[in-house]
Amino acid sequence: MGMVKQVYATLAAIWVGAAALAQAPAPEVKPIDVVPGGSSAIGFGMLTGDQTVDYTFQAEAGQRLSVNMWVDNSSTYFNVLPPGSDSSAIFIGSIGGNAFLGKLPQSGEYKVRVYLMRNAARRGDTATYRVMIGLTDIIDADDPVPADMADVTPDGPATWVVSVNSTLNMRAAPTTGAEVVLKLNDGAVVRNLGCQLQGAREWCNVALKDGSTEGWVVREFLEPSEAPASTDAAVQGTTFNATGRIRCAQGDSANMGLCDFGVRRAGDGTGEMVVTLPDGSDKTIAFVNFMPQAGPGGSVRQDSDLFVFNDGDVRLEIPLAVTTGR
């Protein structure tokens, strides 16, 4: 029996040692200065596997914290941890999304923890991120509305312009759990149908300029826009705002080459481009919310700053700058 006990003890020691080795590494701590009412502090970097980063800062009870993060891997999120906590969070990104706006419950050192979801971490995924952290002074129910919230009323500007590094979700209701009805690109101009405070976040009811789609978006990614008309100058001798060449192919087995194009931009995310195909014919492609529109059976996929367009036997690679002008 002594030998059996010794074997079990050895196996137990091996298991405990392996479990200790399997534990995720401690978060990398990066203290930052967040000045209430000042510019947002910015953190950026890259994660691989089970790496995590804690951005730590001091805040006072009742202050309003805003955190927004942009990522190139959709499995990347952040949590907000209150003073004295290393696990319990007051905001969980994988549930609430990659934007937070809320009133802080206590004073002390807060953490914004950036991480990859467990399945992505196990695969050894890599993610590049950029996080912005801001504070505003104490807000009580009887306090006047802060300047940066003064236009959050149904009267606000007639139109908003989207200001985001990637895309902004337009949802069916003013909550991050609602269905996404459309993804708005940076620079898209939308009609303002009124805004409201829903819980701790500001949401605006918006619609595309042509009225085809309506929904709700988070207020902090909108800026007033009272000049939706295009300021693009026409290329001399043409009716186009820009001309050039894009990668193209015509025919299922054809190699990609270059095709001439011209684009007319309306200034509100809509317009059209005319592409001269390899067979000499012209193909006119409309775009809405800066995105080219394919016909029935066609497809458009955005890959970073490039649209991959397929329609019938035509394949195009259209840079985002063609439709935005930037």
What can you tell me about this protein's structure?
- This protein is mostly beta strands and 326 residues long.
- About 12% of the residues have low confidence.
- A hairpin with a 2-residue loop joins strand 22 and strand 23.
- 11% of the residues lie in helices and 47% in strands.
- The strands form five sheets. An eight-stranded antiparallel sheet has the order 21-20-19-18-17-24-23-22. A five-stranded mixed sheet has the order 1-3-8-5-6.
- The protein contains four helices and 24 strands.
Quick structural overview:
The chain is mainly β and 326 residues long.
Top keywords for this entry?
326 residues; 24 strands; 5-stranded mixed sheet; mainly beta
Query: Which structural class best describes the helix and strand composition?
Result: mainly beta
What share of residues are in beta strands?
A: over 45%
Order of helices and strands: HEEEEEEHEEHEEEEEEEEEEEEEEEEH
- Distance separating the two termini: 78 Å
